[in-house]
Amino acid sequence: MFNPFIKPANAILAGFSYLKRDISFVGMPLIISTELTNNCNLLCPECISGSGKMQRPMGFMDIQLFDKILHELSPYLYNINLYFQGEPMLHPLFFSFIRNTKNIHTEVSTNGHFLNEENAEKIAGSGLGKLIIALDGMDQEIYGAYRKNGNVSTVIEGIRNVISAKKRIGSSLKIEIQFLVSRINENQIPQIKRFAREVGASMNLKSMQIIDKEDIGTWLPRNRKFRRYEVKEGEYVLKSSLPDRCARLWFNPVITWDGKVIPCCFDKNAEYIMGDLNTDSFSEIWGGPKYRIFRKSILSGRHMIEICRNCTSGLRGVKY
Fold first, then answer.
1. pTM exceeds 0.90 for this model
2. Which of 45, 132, 138, 253 sits a CA distance of 20 to 30 A from 206?
C-alpha cells in the first residue's frame, strides 16, 4: 500500500546521515541512474564508450532486472535517470523502461539521432519528465569534430520533431539542449543559445571531461569559465580542491546494464563495484561493508581515489 510519508522521511534520514558523515545508517537513495546500455552509435573521442576504451562488457539491461530495481527502490525515489554510458535509445525495449517509471520523475539523455517523428510522438506522450539532447555545434564541421559518426541535421530535425509533438499533444515534457563546450565549438555558444530560445528548450553549457591528457590542448576551451582544468606547475589539474565529501554516496548511485552497483557517474569503467543486484538486494549493497569502506575513504581522503580526480561535483561555475 502506498505510503506518502516514506519519501520525505527517507529524504530527511539521508540528509541527516550525510551531514553527520554517517557511513552506515544512511537511508535509501533519492535518485538513481540506470544504464540501459553502454553501446553507442557515435565515436566521440573523449567518451569511454565511443572511443573504444571501455574495459567492461557491452550489453543491454534486462527489463526484469530493472523491474527488480524499481520494486525495491520506487517508494524512496524522487528521480530516476535512464542513462549512464552509451545511447539509451538503442535499447530495443527503450519505451518499456519509460512506461515502468510513470510514477517517478524520469530523465533521459540522448545524442538525438533516433528522434524521428514516430519516436518523438511516443516520447512526448510517454510521461517522461525531461529529455536531454546533446547538440555540440550548429554546422556539420563543428558538430562532427567531436560527435564522430554523427549528423547535425538529423539531431536538429529530431529536436524540432519532439518540440512539435510536445506542443501538439500538450505534453509537460521538459526539453534541454546540452552543449559540451570545447575549444572547437565555443565560438558557437551564441548560436546555440538563439536556437534553444527559438525552439523553446532550456540550455545547459557543460564542461568537457578529457580522458586523454595528450589531447587536452585540442579540446580545452579558451574561455576559462568553461574549463574544468587549470595549469599548475606545467600540469593540467582539476579546478577543484576535492573536499573530503561527496553527496552522491548518500543520494545517487549508478547501476550498470548488468546490475553492478557503482558509486557515481564518474566510475565509467565500473572499477569500484559495491555489489551485484543479480545476487543481492539493493539494501544489502547500499548498507554493506564495501559501501561503508568507500564512504569512509571519501571522508578521509577523496583526492586519493582515482575516479574523483576528474570530478567537478560541487565545483562552482562548472557544469558536469
1. yes
2. 253
